[in-house]
Design goal:
Structural class: mainly alpha
Number of strands: 0
Number of helices: 4
Oligomer: single chain
Order of helices and strands: HHHH
Largest sheet: none
Length: 143
């Protein structure tokens, strides 16, 4: 099993994607290219970026992909809002999908925040190698 498959964020994103795909698949043919494809790509981006981020070796590498996933959630919600506005998505279904998206976004934000904290800890522990006798204009305790 890959590590991302154990992630609650990834599991919830995949569940949400199933619901989003159902909406996209129901759209009238004239909306398939604009709204349907955009919904599919954006919701796939969420789970795919979570998976890719989990495979990165550094907190900074992970955080980049978690942040992209977080942005893709917002993209999906934006398209859903437009569909609702145009009466292409019932309000009750929009509300359900919005709540699911908000839950996924909260979890992904937590992941991003945790990796940011890990990144800060890693930076504070990093060692700088300097050649002997070099002048850097730093206080003695930092040289």
């Amino acid at each position: 099993m890959f590590s991302f498959e154990k992630m609650l964020a990834w599991q919830k994103a995949v569940e949400w994607s199933d619901s989003i795909f159902d909406v996209a698949d129901r759209l009238h043919q004239k909306y398939q290219f604009s709204f349907g494809d955009q919904l599919r790509r954006a919701c796939l981006s969420v789970s795919n970026n979570l998976a890719e981020g989990s495979g990165r070796r550094t907190p900074a590498g992970q955080r980049y992909f978690y942040d992209v996933a977080h942005g893709s959630i917002y993209e999906v919600v934006s398209v859903l809002a437009i569909l609702k506005r145009r009466d292409l998505l019932p309000a009750d279904e929009y509300d359900k999908l919005y709540k699911q998206g908000d839950e996924v976004a909260s979890i992904v934000y937590g992941l991003s925040r945790a990796t940011f904290e890990a990144e800060k800890k890693q930076e504070s522990r990093s060692r700088v190698v300097r050649e002997p006798g070099a002048e850097y204009g730093l206080p003695d305790e930092l040289q």
